[in-house]
């Protein structure tokens, strides 16, 4: 045990050093700043919750950001994310019996090294609460703290509602284990506590639903429910709904082969839990539930998909306790002992596949390639006093969402036709904006303010540029013949703010 702890502490220390470097190089991008913008909106928490209503995320992350912002200001965004990620890593390293090399495999993967620690989003908080659940369930599967943790979990993001349901299923099946000692008549304490925990979790789901619906980001949702046949196919072959768990070098594999092998790996990754039947069932429920969520509501990015990995860690952690070992018949037990190593090998491979993207993040940080060029623009404006009161207008609009973290300039949203940095992705906006309209708007802002107007243009514009360019969901920018030449003649090019890891790169223009 001491050697395990010493190895884990060494891995944790090395991980912390790398994370500290990545945090120091990280540039906030729009989704991170968008959450902080909402969190500090309004004069009080009630006003903030009113502004949050309909955004698509429940309130817990925003409440944490608001509380931290009241103490440390804008530093709350990276600080809360880092604190959450470090707490989760410390829980796993210091309170589980995980081997040091497995811990290294997990911590130095994309999920832990960057996405849930450096990236300031709410998904790392789901992971921390899942690990807290694992710890509590191992100590007492009937603890009423489980209900509290589930209440918090379902108020982090919608995906965690699916995972919470899988944990309740786990605890429900556990109730059907044979009771070794005869009990008095009446409701068993374990059953009573499960019911209480379920009611508390259901109350949490009600809070989540009340916060996120009806959504004002109606352009972001799928337009309809897929056919039953397609949903059945998704459940059988889920890999296409978890594409970012499979790194870019696998793009060389034929898509049908990757779909089959990737889906097999996802299912086999749960098989290592088969010694604990309930944990195995819960993992399958989480996999199927998340797949259906991605298929029906909206597709996932890595931050969403990796919640399945966090769920697997928590369930493997619980299943390692001999108390959760299921008593199989002798013949079936021999089969279980043969297939379990296959599952363990599969889940280790699944986590090994998260290493290349993490190393790519480190390479980008060393090379100075940021997530967004918003910080570069902030530095540019700080060095040019004549632009410190300039209006910022962009195509696409999303380029301005991260700017408030780095500068105080006013921003204007073309599709929504209002001064703001917070975008409502709705079908009721101006769906198609011409480049000439962008130019006219910038001129009008300059005339009214008396200060230069700066334009952030995501596309690389030439005099010959013509076409319709997708911006977000159902929004687009149109450049008919003549618009590009007119734009270039009416503006002064200030510089390239490229490249970036995300699409938050642009060319900067000043209206003449």
What is this entry, summarized?
The chain is an alpha/beta fold. The chain has helices at 2-25, 30-39, 45-52, 60-72, 76-95, 100-107, 110-115, 123-139, 145-153, 159-174, 189-212, 228-236, 255-271, 277-296, 302-319, 330-352, 355-367, 374-383, 435-449, 483-490; strands at residues 391-395, 411-413, 418-419, 432-434, 453-457, 467-472, 475-479, 491-497, 506-511.
What does it look like?
The protein has two domains: 2-177 and 187-364, no CATH class; 374-511, no CATH class. 45% of the residues are buried. The protein has helices at 2-25, 30-39, 45-52, 60-72, 76-95, 100-107, 110-115, 123-139, 145-153, 159-174, 189-212, 228-236, 255-271, 277-296, 302-319, 330-352, 355-367, 374-383, 435-449, 483-490; strands spanning 391-395, 411-413, 418-419, 432-434, 453-457, 467-472, 475-479, 491-497, 506-511. Helix content is 56%, strand content 8%. By secondary structure, it is α/β, with parallel strands linked by helices. Strand 2 (411-413) and strand 3 (418-419) form a beta hairpin. It has a six-stranded mixed β-sheet. Strands 4-7-6 form a three-stranded mixed β-sheet. The N and C termini lie far apart (70 Å). It is elongated and about 80 Å long. It has 20 helices and nine strands.
Write the layout of secondary structure elements.
Elements: H1 2-25, H2 30-39, H3 45-52, H4 60-72, H5 76-95, H6 100-107, H7 110-115, H8 123-139, H9 145-153, H10 159-174, H11 189-212, H12 228-236, H13 255-271, H14 277-296, H15 302-319, H16 330-352, H17 355-367, H18 374-383, E1 391-395, E2 411-413, E3 418-419, E4 432-434, H19 435-449, E5 453-457, E6 467-472, E7 475-479, H20 483-490, E8 491-497, E9 506-511
Parallel strand pairs: 1-2, 1-5, 4-7
Antiparallel strand pairs: 2-3, 5-9, 6-7, 8-9
Helix pairs in contact: 1-5, 1-6, 1-17, 2-4, 4-5, 5-8, 8-9, 8-15, 9-11, 10-11, 10-14, 13-14, 13-16, 14-15
């Amino acid at each position: 045990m001491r050697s395990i702890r010493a190895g884990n502490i060494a891995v944790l220390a090395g991980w912390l050093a790398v994370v500290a470097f990545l945090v120091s190089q990280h540039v906030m991008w729009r989704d991170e700043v968008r959450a902080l913008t909402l969190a500090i909106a309004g004069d009080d928490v009630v006003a903030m919750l009113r502004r949050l209503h309909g955004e698509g995320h429940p309130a817990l992350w925003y409440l944490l950001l608001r509380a931290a912002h009241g103490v440390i200001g804008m530093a709350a965004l990276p600080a809360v994310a880092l604190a959450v990620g470090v707490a989760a890593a410390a829980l796993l390293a210091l309170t589980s019996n995980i081997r040091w090399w497995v811990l290294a495999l997990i911590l130095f993967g994309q999920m832990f090294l960057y996405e849930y620690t450096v990236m300031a989003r709410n998904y790392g908080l789901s992971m921390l609460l899942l690990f807290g659940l694992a710890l509590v369930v191992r100590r007492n599967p009937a603890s009423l703290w489980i209900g509290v943790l589930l209440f918090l979990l379902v108020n982090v993001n919608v995906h965690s509602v699916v995972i919470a349901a899988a944990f309740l299923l786990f605890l429900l099946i556990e109730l059907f284990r044979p009771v070794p000692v005869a009990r008095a008549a009446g409701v068993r304490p374990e059953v009573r506590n499960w019911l209480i925990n379920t009611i508390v979790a259901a109350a949490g789901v009600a809070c989540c639903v009340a916060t996120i619906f009806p959504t004002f980001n109606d352009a972001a949702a799928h337009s309809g429910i897929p056919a039953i046949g397609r949903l059945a196919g998704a459940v059988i072959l889920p890999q296409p709904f978890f594409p970012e768990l499979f790194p870019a070098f696998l793009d060389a594999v034929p898509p049908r082969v990757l779909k089959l092998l990737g889906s097999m790996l996802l299912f086999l990754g749960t098989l290592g839990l088969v010694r604990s039947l309930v944990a195995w069932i819960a993992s399958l429920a989480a996999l199927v539930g998340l797949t259906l969520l991605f298929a029906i509501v909206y597709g996932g990015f890595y931050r969403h998909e990796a919640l399945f990995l966090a769920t697997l860690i928590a369930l493997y952690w619980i299943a390692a306790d001999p108390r959760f070992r299921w008593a199989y018949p002798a013949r079936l037990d021999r089969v279980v002992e043969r297939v379990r190593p296959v599952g363990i090998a599969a889940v280790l491979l699944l986590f090994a596949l998260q290493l290349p993207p993490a190393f790519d993040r480190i390479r980008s940080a060393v090379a100075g390639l940021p997530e967004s060029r918003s910080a570069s623009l902030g530095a540019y404006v700080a060095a040019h006093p004549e632009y410190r009161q300039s209006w910022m207008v962009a195509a696409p609009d999303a380029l301005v969402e991260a700017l408030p973290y780095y500068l105080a300039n006013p921003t204007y949203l073309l599709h929504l036709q209002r001064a703001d940095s917070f975008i409502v992705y709705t079908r009721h906006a101006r769906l198609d904006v011409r480049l000439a309209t962008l130019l006219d708007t910038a001129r009008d802002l300059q005339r009214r303010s008396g200060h230069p107007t700066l334009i952030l243009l995501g596309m690389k514009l030439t005099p010959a540029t013509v076409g319709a360019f997708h911006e977000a969901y159902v929004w687009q920018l149109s450049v008919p013949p003549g618009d590009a030449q007119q734009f270039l003649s009416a503006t002064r090019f200030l510089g390239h703010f490229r490249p970036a890891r995300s699409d938050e790169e642009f060319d900067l223009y000043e209206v003449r």
